[in-house]
Amino acid sequence: MDQRLLSLLRCPASQAALRALRRDELDALNRAIAAGSATLADGQPWRTPLQAALITEDRARVYRIEDGIPVMLADQAIPAAGIDGLGVA
């Protein structure tokens, strides 16, 4: 993702800055998705593995990137809490 665009984006829920998930974090999230333990903020399960995503600086929410476009909708964020290797303990 273009760093200039990334520096402009903010979490719509908290206004926190965002950064790209590292490979180990993306792997942890995809393990949670495969196990059925990843849900969207609106409570719906998320079942599709991700190729890329953004995480808030406080590591509270993950926003997926689809076809190179960040999905910046608060109810479509994946809460990071409870996902081993991703959220704040």
Summed up, what is this model?
This protein is of the alpha+beta class and 89 residues long. It is 21% helix and 19% strand.
Topology:
Layout: H1 3-8, E1 18-20, H2 23-35, E2 53-56, E3 61-66, E4 69-70, E5 78-79
Antiparallel strand pairs: 1-2, 2-3, 3-4, 3-5
Helicity, as a percent range: 10-25%
Tell me the distance between the termini: 27 Å
Secondary-structure class: alpha+beta
Quaternary structure state of the chains depicted: single chain
How many E strands? 5
- C-alpha-based Rg, rounded: 12 Å
Features:
89 residues; 2 helices; alpha+beta; globular
Characterization of the model:
By secondary structure, the protein is α+β, with helices and mostly antiparallel strands. Helices cover 21% and strands 19% of the residues. Strands 1, 2, 3, 4 and 5 form a 5-stranded antiparallel beta sheet that branches. Strand 3 (61-66) and strand 4 form a beta hairpin. The chain is globular, with a radius of gyration of 12 Å. The model has no long low-confidence stretch (mean pLDDT 92).
